[in-house]
Amino acid sequence: MKQLKQVYQKKILVLGLAKSGFTAARILHKLGAFVTVNDSKPFEESPEAQELLNLGVTVICGRHPQGLLEEGFELVVKNPGIPYSNILIQAALEKEIPVWTEIELAYLISEAPFIGITGSNGKTTTTTLLFHMLNQDEKKPLIAGNIGTVASGVAEKAKTDNVIVTELSSFQLKGTYQFRPHIAILTNLYEAHLDYHGTVEDYTASKFNISRNQTETDYFIYNADQPVVADHAATCKAQLVPFTLKGKTDTSISADDKWIYCQGEPLIERSKILLAGLHNLENIMAATAAALLWGGTKETIIRVLTSFTGVKHRSQFIVNWKGRKFYNDSKATNALATKSALEAFPSNIVLLAGGLERNHSLEELRPYMNRVKTLITFGETADRFSEFARNCGVESIAKVSTMDEAVENAINHSASGDTILLSPACASWDQYESFEIRGDAFINAVQKMTEANE
């Protein structure tokens, strides 16, 4: 871990604990900073706060004192989820105190270079794919960031022969100043998180921070099929590496209906790739480009693409049983995500959907409901989903109460050649504590039902 003169013996406020705040506070203390942690959770309910206090960190829990910024802090490191409308963040910005997310800290202390991945969709799949490609080629990758592993904790232990493959959200990137990945990836860009950013412009600018500090010795991999992304790429100083779904090109990574190409040469037939859908094709091309830039081999890339079944709960392939392919897309908690899943399969879908009623529109699904052979629906939205599907012309509809019933009905309503897809288009909280638990229930039900019917 590099030492940082800019934090040594400086007064630093870490706002919000959780995983990233706790790790950042611990590292800053280790680097010789005078750290104060402020978190809304009561001290007695926060083992993280208790551990930091034992280390000698000043801890203020259960409240956010309005005059806290009057104590001479020279830097604020905030949890990415805390909005910039927060009164303490606003006060810091008015005083021209830098406000970091821990990604900035991770970059500054790391002995290893970074590959940064962002985008409105596909970050996790691209990050995971790239990690597997580099790992199988023995490139010593480490995985970090929004994917669940705190980047500064990974960077603390990274060596010069590692590379940190990092998933980055707009929330994290907004709080960066010097962060400069050697390879940056922007998978795509759609309107999102306006409740946090306030405007499309702020959201877009935060995403573009991933390439802001790159130079001509770095690489920017981007979706050339999106004009807003291509326009940004034209302003970048890094070497540009576009990818496109609009047919074979003689440069970079491209795809047509049958093949993925590298520099115009066939790389792999699309039919041999386990990940389904155009959205995953974007992720595949981005990860492939980065792997090749880092010295990965085409043989390894092909091996990964013909074996990788997907990130758990994100269009994850489960099993091919008696000609029926089962996919777990429990992460699809809104109609846009389920639309992407339906796009991946041309016909004969048995769709399992439903969940928490938040009165979100289902209309984005309408153009793809003709691909749905049968709808199995559950949860608070079951009746509304059934009515919507019926209005779209779906005649075979079953309403169930449990995941076991859903899978049993799906099997009974399906035949060889069908796709059985859990893609709920709704949050899980009416029946499950998380989409992960819902997805695990589906996997368990599939295993139980298929084994019982062998």
Outline the biggest β-sheet: 9 strands, mixed
Tell me the name of the CATH class of the largest domain. Answer: Alpha Beta
Residues in helices, as a percent range:
25-40%
How many strands?
A: 20
Output the strand order for the largest sheet. 7-8-6-9-10-11-12-13-14
Report the structural category. Answer: alpha/beta
Distance between the termini: 54 Å
Mean pLDDT level: 94
Residue runs with pLDDT of under 50 for 5 or more positions? none
Oligomer: single chain
Q: What spatial form do the alpha-carbon principal axes imply?
A: globular
CATH fold-level topology of the largest domain: UDP-N-acetylmuramoyl-L-alanine:D-glutamate ligase
Radius of gyration: 23 Å
**Strand content of the residues, in percent?**
15-25%
Please count the helical segments: 16
Binding site for ATP: 119-125
Family: Belongs to the MurCDEF family.
Organism: Planococcus salinus
Domain Mur ligase central: 117-291
Description of the molecule:
By secondary structure, this protein is α/β, with parallel strands linked by helices. The protein folds into three domains: 11-100, NAD(P)-binding Rossmann-like Domain (Rossmann fold), CATH 3.40.50; 103-305, 3-Layer(aba) Sandwich (UDP-N-acetylmuramoyl-L-alanine:D-glutamate ligase), CATH 3.40.1190; 316-452, Protein-Tyrosine Phosphatase, Chain A, CATH 3.90.190. 35% of the residues lie in helices and 20% in strands. It contains 16 helices and 20 strands. The protein has helices spanning 18-30, 47-55, 87-94, 102-109, 123-136, 151-157, 170-174, 194-197, 200-212, 227-233, 278-293, 298-305, 335-343, 382-391, 403-412, 435-452; strands at 11-15, 34-39, 58-61, 75-78, 99-100, 114-118, 141-145, 163-167, 183-186, 219-223, 239-244, 253-255, 259-262, 265-269, 316-321, 324-328, 349-353, 372-377, 396-399, 419-422. The strands form three sheets. A nine-stranded mixed beta sheet has the order 7-8-6-9-10-11-12-13-14, with helices on both faces. Strands 15-16-20-17-18-19 form a six-stranded mixed beta sheet, with helices on both faces. It has a five-stranded parallel beta sheet with strand order 3-2-1-4-5. α14 links the parallel β18 (372-377) and β19. The longest helix is centred in the C-terminal third of the chain and has 18 residues, at 435-452. It is globular, with a radius of gyration of 23 Å. The mean pLDDT is 94.
